[in-house]
Amino acid sequence: MQRFRPQVAARLAELAPVLLDQLDAMTDRMLDVLQRTEPAYRELLGHSEQEMRTSARGNLERGMRMLLGAASGNGLSSRRDAREVGRRRASQGVPLEAVLRAYRLGGQVTWEALLRVARSGNHEHDTLLLEVAGSVWRTNDAECAAVAEGYREEQRRLAGVDDGARQHVLDGLLDGRGGDPAFVRTASELLAVPLEGRLLAVVALPGPDGRPAIDLPHATLLKRGVRSVWGTRSGAQVGIVALGRKSGFEVMSWLQSAASGPVGVSAVVDGAAEAGAAYRMAETAARTLPAGTRRVVSIDERLPEALMSNSPEISSRLVGQSLGGLLELPADEQDVLLGTLAAFLAADGSPTRAADELYCHRNTVMHRLRRIESVTGRKVTDQRSRLLWQLALLGTDHGPPAQRSA
Questions:
Q1: Whose CA is closest to 44, among 218, 221, 224?
Q2: Closest to 219 in 3D by CA, of 258, 173, 181, 245
Q3: How many whole angstroms separate alpha carbon 273 and alpha carbon 181?
Q4: Which of 80, 137, 230, 287 has the largest count of CB atoms under 10 Å?
């Protein structure tokens, strides 16, 4: 960037504090225009407003500091930052033309703010600033070129990563290679997914028609500014998600909107070394859901079910020992009594609330509970019996009402 004449540099130095105070208002102005005029950015703002606001404000601030730095002879290039923005927008699927228009809008907003703060100081015709105009637009043109360069670099990189390479990297993570720093660096660079921070594993079992349970999960998350890598294992979709500053609950809500089958999510883990453990947690959570269920659950929501599903021999014995003769009754009576027991336990042992849930009289519930006691040899007032019954019902089709409808 050019050096300004001493008079111009002095005027810019005078305006600098006021101009920098306008950053938030300038950011609001820029996002408002993008919201109204650019469909691609309107979608991004709907999903990742904070990321967009942070990016826009940072770009505006860097441009202003370059301008003010040139006035003092200390101007610094922001081409590296512009290239990174180009790469990020390419990965998010924003058209290059829209990205360049957004950058040119930033130059316009900067120039308008400079004129506004100059005029507020009773300098209606501040001819010194005419020398600055050319520098503003030359800087903006250079940054647009850097944005385009970064955008095309990312396009070439994405085109060069085929499905086989992506699956190979994912398999390595799931098989425990995340503890190898060299592998992690290569994988992060190849996939453009940060693997050193907070990660989440997702396993989606096929839907009823055998198709993938989540439609375009990578795109669904990328629109929200979340990077991930996806592949298949044992017939299921498997993903490793780099959370960044997002929460696991946010990711689950976004996946729920796209899910058409059972989906399990791990606890949040720290770094690629724990990716294998995260995968096992997510797979277990997914397999606790009934086939055909359109639901996303975390392992922490399904811990009792996970324990039962991971120990089939113990699960079978627990069901037999806890429910006993109930399972030997005629099907109609068995169904009624198991449903009553589930409602009673879900109501924290309240026959009245269980009756409300079952749409019957409280005395009917009491009669059925006495029948359950006589058949199983256990008392409904015994806390250990209730615990065993709750676990045993997880191994039948008579879980609590909320679980049955999920």
A1: 224
A2: 258
A3: 9
A4: 230
Report helix, strand and coil shares of the chain as percent, to nearest 5. 70, 10, 25
219 CB contacts (<8 Å, ≥6 apart)?
Answer: 93
Of 57, 65, 56, nearest to 12 by C-alpha is 65
> Where on the phi/psi map is residue 272: left (φ > 0), alpha (ψ -120 to 50), or beta?
alpha
Separation between Cα atoms, residue 340 and residue 357, nearest integer Å: 9
341/6 Cα distance (integer angstroms): 87
Read off the amino acid at residue 135. Answer: S
* Residues 193/223, Cβ–Cβ less than 8 Å: no
Other beta carbons within 10 angstroms of residue 324's beta carbon come to 15
> What three-state secondary structure class fits 202?
strand
Residue 73, φ and ψ in degrees, nearest 5: 85, 10
Task: Output the pTM of the full model.
Answer: 0.58
Neighbours of 81 (CB within 10 A): 18
Residue 198, beta-bridge partner list: 270
Neighbours of 316 (CB within 10 A): 12
Token pair for residue 184?
Answer: 């992690």
pLDDT tens per residue, range 380-391 = 888 888 888 888
pLDDT tens-digit map of 127-174: 666 667 777 777 788 888 989 998 888 877 777 667 788 888 899 999
- 15/393 Cα distance (integer angstroms): 72
Whole-number Å distance between alpha carbons of 53 and 30? 9
DSSP letters for 48-99: HHHHHHHHHHHHHHHHHHHHHHHHHT-----HHHHHHHHHHHHHTT--HHHH
Three-class SS state of 279? helix
Picking from 94, 193, 88, the residue whose alpha carbon sits closest to that of residue 150 is 88
Task: In whole angstroms, give the CA distance from residue 90 to residue 107.
Answer: 21
Buried b (16+ CB within 10 A) or exposed e, 48-68: beebbbebbbebbbbbbbbbb
How many whole angstroms separate alpha carbon 152 and alpha carbon 144? 12
Q: What letter would DSSP give residue 245?
A: T
Type of residue numbered 56: A
The most distant pair of C-alpha atoms in the chain lies apart, rounded to whole Å, by 99
Neighbours of 186 (CB within 10 A): 13
**pLDDT tens readout for residues 99-128:** 999 989 998 898 888 888 777 755 545 666
27 residue type, one letter: T
